[in-house]
Design a protein that fits this description.
- The protein has 271 residues and is mainly alpha-helical.
- It contains 14 helices and no strands.
- Helix 8 packs antiparallel against helix 11 (192-208) and helix 9 runs antiparallel to helix 10.
- The radius of gyration is 23 Å and the shape is globular.
- Its main location: membrane.
- It is a multi-pass membrane protein.
């Protein structure tokens, strides 16, 4: 069998499959340049009016700012919790580890609608106890997003820890390092890529979360995905296509940055 032909055909199939899956995303690009007031393909007249409306509309800018704040806070808190829990499980080496991991990963197994209902009742009760931290508040949305995002961060960190040799921890402890010194000077530097992946994944999941957000927000908090959903449901605003194109470009830049960091790390490892 010609391995070169096999590899070439496999790559061709992969490219065709990727093009098929990405085609619906690519069609939104020309739609965003339409000169009409509704979603449609340009009929020879290309316009930037929807990009201008997007960048000059205070409602859209407010939603972008709220989403950035919520996603940043969620990413930071979820990463701290995921790293702490995963390292604790890695150090513990107990039979309870499987049970604890199962409890933490439980939100991944529950349908989003059920999670949204539970978080709605939690947020309304929390708002009575601590006003400003419950329903339809930025801190309340952050808390709900952290609950939904932490399991994915834990999975990412457990995968990263599975690739770490336990002998480096034993060597550190045998040389007299304390648990804190081992954690911050030995373990965390070896988990840089896993931590970065957790931060990126947590940010992305919080940024695009809409199902839970619809249940726990009303007037004061209107994140970008919620506004996009409202725009598609109510008036089919072409600005939705414009923001979609900007988000696609941002995603590509982030992925290219991550690939560049991985390539740089591999080059340093070889040298």
């Amino acid at each position: 069998m010609n391995t070169h032909r096999t590899a070439l055909s496999t790559r061709l199939i992969a490219v065709v499959a990727m093009a098929f899956m990405l085609f619906p995303l690519l069609t939104v690009i020309p739609v965003s340049f339409t000169a009409k007031r509704y979603l449609s393909m340009p009929d020879g007249h290309w316009s930037l009016r929807h990009y201008e409306a997007l960048l000059s509309n205070p409602d859209w800018l407010s939603s972008i700012g709220q989403s950035l704040a919520i996603a940043s806070a969620t990413s930071l808190i979820a990463t701290l919790l995921a790293v702490s829990f995963s390292l604790g499980i890695w150090y513990l080496r107990s039979r309870l580890a499987t049970l604890l991991i199962g409890l933490v990963l439980l939100p991944m197994a529950i349908p989003p609608v059920i999670s949204a209902l539970v978080l709605y009742f939690m947020e309304t009760n929390l708002g009575r106890i601590a006003p400003g931290w419950g329903y339809d508040t930025l801190p309340g949305v952050v808390i709900a997003h952290v609950v939904m995002v932490v399991p994915y961060g834990v999975v990412t960190m457990l995968v990263a820890l599975s690739q770490v040799d336990r002998r480096i921890e034993l060597a550190s402890r045998n040389l007299g390092a304390s648990l804190m010194q081992t954690t911050f000077l030995v373990m965390l530097p070896n988990l840089k890529l896993g931590i970065f992946s957790t931060v990126l994944l947590s940010f992305a999941l919080s940024w695009e979360e809409v199902a839970v957000t619809l249940f726990i927000t009303s007037v004061d908090v209107n994140t970008l995905p919620r506004r996009i959903w409202s725009g598609l449901r109510d008036n089919v605003d072409p600005s939705v296509a414009a923001i979609s194109v900007l988000l696609i470009c941002l995603t590509l830049l982030v992925l290219m940055g991550r690939l560049a960091l991985q390539y740089a790390a591999q080059r340093r490892a070889r040298s």
